[in-house]
Specification:
The complex is a heterodimer of chains A (574) and B (184). Chain A has 574 residues and is of the alpha/beta class. Chain A contains 22 helices and 20 strands. In chain A, helix 6 links the parallel strand 6 and strand 7. Chain B has four helices and nine strands. The chains are: A alpha/beta (574), B alpha+beta (184). Chains A and B meet through loops of A and helix 1 and helix 2 of B.
């Protein structure tokens, strides 16, 4: 059947089961948008900035496990996607970004709204395409979806010149993918799995570090089986949060820079680390030379390039986490590590990392805790980046799989609101709370308009502390309280929300927190609560930059011990 | 970290942008690429690239794995220190006239190089060999006066039957879900 390039794109999207597209049109994608009404199966969400489109597609993808799709025009439209694409790349979220490009005869001539977006996104996409003839669109679309969603997922960008969108060609949607070079290893090597099972059997103090790979691979049941069969305690990375029920007796919370003290101590004391679907990010390992000093390390990951990248690994297993754990569970013996588990439980009692101070002032941790109490843990929590993100990870109790969505690798302020919107559109029956900071929210606050227009029932909790709080915390601890460029005066968020047509409330004392949350939840549509919290509250526990996990600072009162002279900080990724 | 010279050989699909993707992974880490040579391979629509880079062994190995992830890549091997033959080709344009041309020809003969162009005041020498040979030829003819020099990047191949790449097998045509990547 003959079709235009634009129709081919839409037809391919339909065949790939796409339901939602986030985007903004412009000159170079007019032909593509022009045919959208012919495809009523494709719901287009008009965002207010292309960064919002990319984050929304990302949030949608993470919440549903499907590939998220966003559209943008050439030039500034395409460059506005870049942050969102990089974010998806670092957190392995499956995404297709389709950008318009100037017509073929104008490419390379600095035409109006021309940028070399395939060149720009080369290092932040899994793959990208500049489509030079319409006939190649079906094969490229098929490939792009396959690449984005398989192996280690990631973003794929397709750049479509305007005249290619208008060009007629025969539409043949391929049945198979012709990617002879791309063969992600799914099954782990049996000998390596056997070796891993033996190490687990010999270990006295084993510890699982579970990452986002568990969620991507939907290996929740396999992980639980391994944990329970061999009685191995679990800690998670930031993005691994919610991949294992946190109320489980063998769950010890998050590790890393703002992880639980006992989780970090467990890593330090373990004699075997089983790292599953995680990549030893520097925020998780702290100082690498001091990471798990007594442990052998088993590393299970689908991406061979992650093996041995940051830490030495004793038993690497390249493969899909679900498949590998399935095999491993058959070989692992039932075991009990009573002494080890008891020790961790003692540490958990002696080093409580989740105590919320008593008193009158409204603490951000208290707000997060109340959201948990009121939702009974049955909500998807999407965060921005900053202190509120860490409190949301720490003080909400994640028992349901895949209920925590956050920007981990890139640490993109502004991720929260559009990603929450995408998550809610993907999971309309779930309660979605966006926990955001006053700084982070304002980076993409324009998406309130999209939320209002599309009536997306996201509940927004602004943790409003009048600072770029995480940076202020670093200035307090490591730059002698020189608060350069962190104090933040914000608009009246209640009025802002109301101006967008979104009901809102302000809360500045503890008593009003729960009723406000209940009111927000009773509302069928979106709702915003502006929580005015203690301005200079810090996130603890904290592993200072350059320190090992075991050197965790637990309590605010011990701040004085923090490294004062920033010039003396050891070289690390701060 | 001590840096050493590494020879990486890659079999890749012959498509626009592949070289850019590969080179970008070196650039990202601030590696200077000593040389690159690219040409068709024995498989239709496949090219073989030879990179020579300086870097710490562990970092080069990490880059190799990342090169391997590029979608168009079949396989990347670090063949440093293996039983490897390397060659490069050089053109050297040297000042020479009727009085000293015969002396120059003698040197060229010793190196089993060729003179491929003669002009009244210069000749072009074509030389093939490993890096050392080209360098010593260069040093010997330098006295005549070098006008221009152009060298290809190094190409490399392991000796004997065990090539670093699965050259005899055609890559499978269909998607291979669940199949293992060869030799990994």
């Amino acid at each position: 059947m003959k079709m235009t390039g634009a129709q081919m794109v839409c037809e391919s999207l339909v065949r790939e089961g796409v339901e939602v597209i986030f985007g903004i049109l412009g000159g170079s994608v007019l032909p593509l948008y022009d045919v959208l009404p012919q495809y009523p199966q494709l719901r287009h969400i008009l965002v207010r900035h292309e960064q919002g489109a990319a984050h929304a597609a990302d949030g949608y993808a993470r919440a549903t496990g499907k590939v998220g799709v966003c559209f943008a025009t050439s030039g500034p439209g395409a460059t506005n996607l870049v942050t969102g694409i990089a974010n998806a790349h670092l957190d392995s979220a499956p995404m297709i970004a389709i950008t318009g490009q100037v017509a073929r005869p104008f490419i390379g001539k600095d035409a109006f709204q021309e940028v070399d977006i395939t060149g720009i996104t080369l290092p932040i996409t899994k793959h990208n395409y500049l489509v030079m003839d319409a006939a190649s669109i079906p094969a490229i679309m098929k490939e792009a979806f396959y690449l984005a969603g398989t192996g280690r997922p990631g973003p794929v960008l397709i750049d479509l010149p305007r005249d290619v969108q208008q060009e007629q060609a025969e539409f043949n949607y391929p049945e198979r993918i012709n990617l002879p070079q791309y063969k992600p290893t799914l099954q782990g090597h049996p000998a390596q799995i056997k070796k891993a099972a033996r190490l687990i059997g010999e270990s006295q103090r084993p510890l699982i570090i579970a990452g986002r790979g568990i969620t991507i691979s939907r290996a929740f049941a396999e992980l639980k089986e391994l944990v329970e069969k061999a009685q191995i305690p679990v800690v998670t990375t930031l993005l691994g949060t919610s991949c294992f029920p946190e109320s489980h007796a063998l769950s010890y919370g998050m590790l890393g820079m703002h992880g639980m003290a006992y989780a970090n101590m467990a890593v330090d004391a373990a004699d075997l680390i089983i790292a599953i679907g995680m990549r030893f990010d520097d925020r998780a390992t702290a100082r690498v030379s001091g990471f798990a000093p007594h442990a052998h390390i088993i590393h299970i990951d689908i991406d061979p390039a992650e093996i041995g990248k940051n830490v030495r690994v004793d038993v690497p297993i390249v493969g899909d986490v679900k498949a590998v754990l399935g095999e491993l569970n058959k070989l692992v013996d039932k075991a009990k590590h009573i002494d080890w588990v008891n020790k961790l439980d003692v540490w958990r009692k002696e080093h409580p990392s989740l105590l919320i101070r008593e008193g009158k002032s409204l603490l951000p941790q208290y707000v997060v805790r109340q959201i948990y109490e009121e939702t009974k843990g049955d909500a998807i929590i999407v965060t921005g980046v900053g202190q509120h993100q860490m409190w949301a990870a720490q003080h909400y109790w994640y028992d349901k799989p895949n209920t925590f969505i956050s920007s981990g690798g890139l640490g993109t302020m502004g991720f929260g609101l559009p990603a929450a919107m995408g998550a809610k559109i993907g999971c309309p029956d779930s309660t979605v709370w966006c926990i955001d900071g006053d700084g982070s929210l304002q980076m993409t606050i324009q998406e309130l308009a999209t939320i209002a227009q599309e009536k997306v029932g996201v509940k927004i909790a602004v943790i409003h502390n009048t600072y770029l709080g995480m940076v202020r915390q670093w200035q307090e601890l490591f730059y002698d309280k020189r608060y350069v460029a962190t104090p933040l005066s914000s608009p009246d968020f209640v009025k802002i929300a109301e101006a967008y047509g979104i009901p809102a409330l302000r809360v500045d004392c503890r008593e009003d927190v729960a009723p406000a949350i209940r009111k927000a939840m009773a509302e069928p549509g979106p709702f915003l609560i502006d929580f005015i919290v203690e301005p200079e509250e810090n996130v603890y526990p904290m592993v200072p930059p350059g320190a090992a996990l075991a050197e965790v600072i637990e309590e605010p009162r011990k701040e004085a011990k923090a490294i004062k002279d920033s010039a003396k900080l050891p070289v690390s990724n701060i | 970290m001590a840096t050493t010279k590494h020879i990486l050989v890659a079999l890749v699909e012959d498509k626009p942008g592949v070289l850019n993707r590969m080179a970008s992974l070196f650039r990202r880490r601030g590696f200077n690429i000593d040389s690159i040579a690219v040409g068709h391979s024995e498989i239709p629509h496949m090219s073989r690239m030879t990179f020579v880079v300086n870097g710490p062994a562990t970092v080069v190995e990490q880059v190799r794995k990342q090169l391997d992830k590029v979608v168009e890549t079949v396989k990347v091997s670090d063949i440093t220190g293996d039983n490897v033959i390397t060659r490069e080709l050089a053109f050297i344009k040297v000042k020479a006239n009727s009085t000293n041309r015969s002396e120059l020809i003698q040197i060229v003969d010793i190196f089993r190089a060729n003179i491929v162009d003669v002009a009244p005041d210069s000749v072009i020498i074509e030389a093939t060999g490993d890096e050392e040979k080209i360098n010593s030829l260069f040093n010997l003819v330098r006295g005549f006066g070098i006008k221009e020099i152009s060298r290809t990047g190094r190409i490399a191949m392991t000796r004997g039957g065990s090539g670093p790449l699965p050259v005899t097998k055609k890559p499978p045509k269909t998607q291979a879900k669940g199949q293992k990547k060869a030799n990994k």
